[in-house]
Amino acid sequence: MDRKRRYLSRTRLIIIVLMTVGVLQVSGCGNGQQTLNAESESEEHVPIKFGATYMTMNNPYFEALDDSIEEVVEANGDVLISRDPAQDQEKQNEQIQEMIEDGVAAIFLSPADWKGVKPALIKCKEAGVPVFNVDTYVYDTEYVVSSILSDNYNAGVQIAKDVMKKRPRAKIAIINHETINSTALRVQGFLDTIKGHDEYEVVVHEKITAELEVSMEITKQIIDENIDFDVVLGGNDPTALGALAALQLRRVDKDILIYGIDGSPDGKTMIKQGFLEGTSAQFPIEIGNTAAEKAYEYLAGKQVESNIIIPVKLITQDNLEDYDMAGWQ
């Protein structure tokens, strides 16, 4: 897909640029044709259209999630229409309206703003189009059939425990997205775990868009302001990688533990090379497959769970060999 190639090209370009400065040094709702009896004619399957819109496609996690949903849909002879609102909730609401008008049978949704998506959810309900919430919650969950997400809170807990195991004290920089519930839950899990331990101090907390380039710029600003920190918690892997790039571009010569959340191929590569300390791995393939399967079950008249939580697992150098370096979980 063109958007995937664009993302990959941009990511590779960033890595190449960093390498030139010595940074990374990385050497059933529809039926198929059925024969009713010897005399009857075969019924031709009419493809069902599904819609999907994620907060952004400028993140390989959502590419993996979209691919896994599409795999199930296409295996049933149906079609998935995917859209990228580029973190713009107004645009995403417009995309959802267009999907309703296009006659989709159901929509897979990861909101750019978990509260701002409500007008679109109301329109889906009025139109009788079921919504399956993936990756991060919508605020008004009564408008969705089912939410299929990672255990985001526990991702933060896992990282906090790892920090406390490896450092007797720490000054922590947190960078996450303000209007996305998933990253807020991750940070909350982290903060709840270090609560009451004054030796672990959050010295800066920046709430920005969860993209590599933005994180890189904000981390450079933190460095330029001479804020002292030795741990970075990124709301996702691109945020952590952006912080890493900034630290290297500013030639910061200090032992800083950097954590992401995703379990992306790039994140795992940086762990192997010793640049990231860890990433709490999500399982977008499992999330996507589960969401698509639940959509088909619902359209077939079956009852589905309203809340499905997929466990996360912390990846560090200690267990890196247990995971596919080139792919997603």
Describe the structure.
The structure is a single chain. By secondary structure, this protein is of the alpha/beta class. It has two domains: 46-149 and 283-310, 3-Layer(aba) Sandwich (Rossmann fold), CATH 3.40.50; 152-282 and 317-322, 3-Layer(aba) Sandwich (Rossmann fold), CATH 3.40.50. It contains ten helices and twelve strands. 46% of the residues are buried. Residues 1-42 have low confidence and may be disordered.
Labels describing this entry:
Rossmann fold, 329 residues, six-stranded mixed sheet, alpha/beta
Give me a quick take on this structure:
With 329 residues, the chain is an alpha/beta fold. Helices cover 42% and strands 18% of the residues. The chain folds into 2 domains: 46-149 and 283-310, Rossmann fold (3-Layer(aba) Sandwich), CATH 3.40.50; 152-282 and 317-322, Response regulator (Rossmann fold, 3-Layer(aba) Sandwich).
Can you identify the CATH class of the largest domain? Answer: Alpha Beta
What spatial form do the alpha-carbon principal axes imply?
Answer: elongated
- Helix/sheet category: alpha/beta
How many structurally independent domains? Answer: 2
How far apart lie the N and C ends?
A: 21 Å
Classify the beta-strand content into a percent band: 15-25%
Low-confidence stretches: 1-42
What is the N-to-C order of secondary-structure elements (H for helix, E for strand)? HEHEHEHEEHEHEHEHEHEHEE
Identify the strand order in the major beta sheet. 2-1-3-4-5-11
Mean pLDDT: 89
